[in-house]
């Protein structure tokens, strides 16, 4: 078939493409590095003509132009599946909102939704000889977005890495309504040369000693999971596998160091499986056209049943705080929204069901406020408005720089004792007093 002829017939300018968006429409911007650039700029130019446009997206790595218009709250709402720092600031300005959902459920949500998209606009790779545009590092839920949108506009970026699969990692030109050739900006980077703190390294050391040869890894976003990856790269571990929602630079480092080969994975052997990737240019260069990488939808990577079927599954994620009942908050500081549910609970549940599997929730024992006050991340009860990401019944290992504790199956007094044992020493007496008031402390504990 002559795909080039069809390509030319569907090729339009960004300004022409966004004319189809009307007031009241649901519009999808995609995800992370797939967020459109030229189309966003064109929509910003005409957004003041529109009202009540409802836009979905998530994990923004740069500030969209639509965020910069005058009084954006009068023209659109941004509905995020997972918040970045850019989106948190937009909440305070009154036009951004979080959409609570388990990340694994997104493909089904789109396919079952009562609020289908009128328009989807996403960045993709150039079309291949078979007529396919690759979603780049964002298989995630983009196929479901495109399937269920009335109009699909793709913005071609020659710098987008082509990520092999897998499945649901591409869209055929026959399913595309309009094509925009973008200005080919570099793919937005995340992280990079962050210096790991002594706390990060202490936590990482406690976790790495629990990882056996042949384990399959999932790393969450943030400094501590990356510290684990850095330490693994320098360790004697071998034959590791990867099955993760987010692919980060640490996996590249581990692979280069010879730690990852996937030979012990009992599903998808020799493949590094992931739903989306974000990192530095080193990562994007590595995943481009790499047949070892397996780009798949998040409904597969984060499926508890799939995770549970992989032996020796090791899941490592951050949190904001934990209370003495063992409830994990990874999403907010009281009413102040921070991120989202993501896939943390799925991996906590799946890793525990895996033969030989373990999940680790980690954090520094304290944090310092803007005013310079040091506070404990282990608290008697979560602050009003704080979100329970992982319930007290589900948490396996909890780790700070002061130690690691296995919380599974402990009674309330045992759990309080274990958590206080890894709290910062300056806060332990205070936490004991609060635990006594809460009737979850035995005199024999101390």
TrEMBL record:
MF GO annotations: acetate CoA-transferase activity
Domain of life (superkingdom): Bacteria
Start and end residues of each Acetyl-CoA hydrolase/transferase C-terminal domain: 279-435
Tagged with keyword Transferase: yes
Functional summary from the UniProt entry: Coenzyme A-transferase that converts butyryl-CoA to butyrate.
Alphabetized InterPro entries for the sequence: AcetylCoA_hyd_C, AcetylCoA_hyd_C_sf, ActCoA_hydro, ActCoA_hydro_N, Butryl-CoA_acetate_CoA_Tfrase, NagB/RpiA_transferase-like
Residues annotated to bind CoA: 220-224, 320, 343
Lineage: Bacteria, Bacillati, Bacillota, Clostridia, Eubacteriales
UniProt cross-references to NCBIfam families, sorted A to Z: butyr_acet_CoA
EC number from the UniProt entry: 2.8.3.-
Catalytic activity: butanoate + acetyl-CoA = butanoyl-CoA + acetate
Similarity comment: Belongs to the acetyl-CoA hydrolase/transferase family. Butyryl-CoA CoA-transferase subfamily.
SUPFAM superfamilies: NagB/RpiA/CoA transferase-like
Protein's name in the database: Butyryl-CoA:acetate CoA-transferase
PANTHER family listed in its UniProt record: ACETYL-COA HYDROLASE (PTHR21432:SF20), ACETYL-COA HYDROLASE-RELATED (PTHR21432)
UniProt entry keywords in alphabetical sequence: Fatty acid metabolism, Lipid metabolism, Transferase
GO term, biological process aspect, one: butyrate biosynthetic process
Biological pathway: Lipid metabolism; butanoate metabolism
UniProt domain Acetyl-CoA hydrolase/transferase N-terminal: residue ranges: 4-187
Residues forming the catalytic site: 245
Top-level EC class as recorded in UniProt: transferase
């Amino acid at each position: 078939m002559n795909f080039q002829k069809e390509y030319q017939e569907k090729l339009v300018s960004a300004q022409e493409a966004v004319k189809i968006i009307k007031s009241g429409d649901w519009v999808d911007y995609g995800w992370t590095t797939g967020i459109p650039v030229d189309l966003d700029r064109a929509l910003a130019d005409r957004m003041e003509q529109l009202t009540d446009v409802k836009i979905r997206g998530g994990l923004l790595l740069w500030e969209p132009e639509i965020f910069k218009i005058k009084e954006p709250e009068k023209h659109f709402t941004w509905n995020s599946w997972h918040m970045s720092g850019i989106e948190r600031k937009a909440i305070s300005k009154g036009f951004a909102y979080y959409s609570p959902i388990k990340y694994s459920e997104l493909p089904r949500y789109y396919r079952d939704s009562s609020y289908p998209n009128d328009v989807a606009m996403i960045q993709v790779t150039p079309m291949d000889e078979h007529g396919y545009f690759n979603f780049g590092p964002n298989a995630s839920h983009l196929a479901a977005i495109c399937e269920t949108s009335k109009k699909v506009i793709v913005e071609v970026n020659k710098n987008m890495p082509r990520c092999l699969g897998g499945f649901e990692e591409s869209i055929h030109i026959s399913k595309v309504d309009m094509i925009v050739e973008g200005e080919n900006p570099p793919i937005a980077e995340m992280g990079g040369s962050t210096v790991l703190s002594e706390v990060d390294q202490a936590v990482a050391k406690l976790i790495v000693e629990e990882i056996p040869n042949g384990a399959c890894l999932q790393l969450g976003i943030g400094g501590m999971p990356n510290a684990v990856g850095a330490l693994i790269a320098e360790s004697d571990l071998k034959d590791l596998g990867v099955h993760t929602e987010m692919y980060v630079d640490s996996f590249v480092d581990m692979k280069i160091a010879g730690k990852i080969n996937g030979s012990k994975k009992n599903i998808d052997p020799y493949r590094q499986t992931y739903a989306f990737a974000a990192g530095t240019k080193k990562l994007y260069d590595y995943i481009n056209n790499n047949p070892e990488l397996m780009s798949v939808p998040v409904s597969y990577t984060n499926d508890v049943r799939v995770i549970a079927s992989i032996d020796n599954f090791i899941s490592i994620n951050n949190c904001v705080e934990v209370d003495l009942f063992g409830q994990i908050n990874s999403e907010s500081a009281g009413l102040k929204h921070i991120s989202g549910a993501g896939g943390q609970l799925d991996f906590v549940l799946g890793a525990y069901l895996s033969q030989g599997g373990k999940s680790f929730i980690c954090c520094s024992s304290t944090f310092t406020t803007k005013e310079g006050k040091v506070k404990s991340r282990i608290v008697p009860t979560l602050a009003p408005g704080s979100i329970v990401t992982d319930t007290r019944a589900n948490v396996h290992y909890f780790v700070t720089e002061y130690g690691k504790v296995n919380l599974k199956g402990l009674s309330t007094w045992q759990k309080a004792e274990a958590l206080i044992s890894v709290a910062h020493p300056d806060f332990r007496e205070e936490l004991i007093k609060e635990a006594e008031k809460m009737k979850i402390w035995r005199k024999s504990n101390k």
